[in-house]
Design goal:
The complex is a heterodimer. Chain A is mainly β. Chain A is about 0% helix and about 50% strand. Chain A is globular, with a radius of gyration of 14 Å. By secondary structure, chain B is mainly β. Chain B is built from no helices and 12 strands. Chain B starts with a strand and ends with a strand. Classes of the chains: A mainly beta, B mainly beta.
Amino acid sequence: EAGVAQSPRYKIIEKRQSVAFWCNPISGHATLYWYQQILGQGPKLLIQFQNNGVVDDSQLPKDRFSAERLKGVDSTLKIQPAKLEDSAVYLCASSPQGVWTGEQYFGPGTRLTVT
Amino acid sequence: AQTVTQSQPEMSVQEAETVTLSCTYDTSESDYYLFWYKQPPSRQMILVIRQEAYKQQNATENRFSVNFQKAAKSFSLKISDSQLGDAAMYFCAYRSGLIQGAQKLVFGQGTRLTINP
């Protein structure tokens, strides 16, 4: 079974530029999550999708961050314009729907550096 | 809102010894899951062990076991016979028991574990 795929793995941009990250979850997983992990901290949820609908985006900075999950499969997270404090690892995770063990499966992450 | 606290930023242990990582959490829910995730340097996060709150028996996975104290809201991880490959950041995480709706993981700050040969 293929795991959660993310691209790119690394990205360096200047502040005020825009950037997009892509995630493809495990096949059949209805729920998709984007987390932000700042260096030295635990991951923090940005947004949760159930199929192609948003369940929780309460911690997403909506003035600059946007995310979509068209067709309920892969997802894109965009930052426009980027700030220095957006430097972090962006983790995508997925989980199946229904009664399950609660585990989320993580991708390798995209490390963003904003200069 | 739920919170997770890991009070040990760094821990070290000799190879083959036993180490315990601490985690406390705060919640008003009665049904939830607790997890320990491992994040090796520049590698992806993987699940080490999980515990369902309704289960009184502590979870065990090979060399990894937990001490789950529901009343005290404590969830520590014990690693026995430590190996060099155990070196990583370890995160304690909480998830609501809801089947539908918001199901985010709430993470602690992490504990960096070093294994000394």
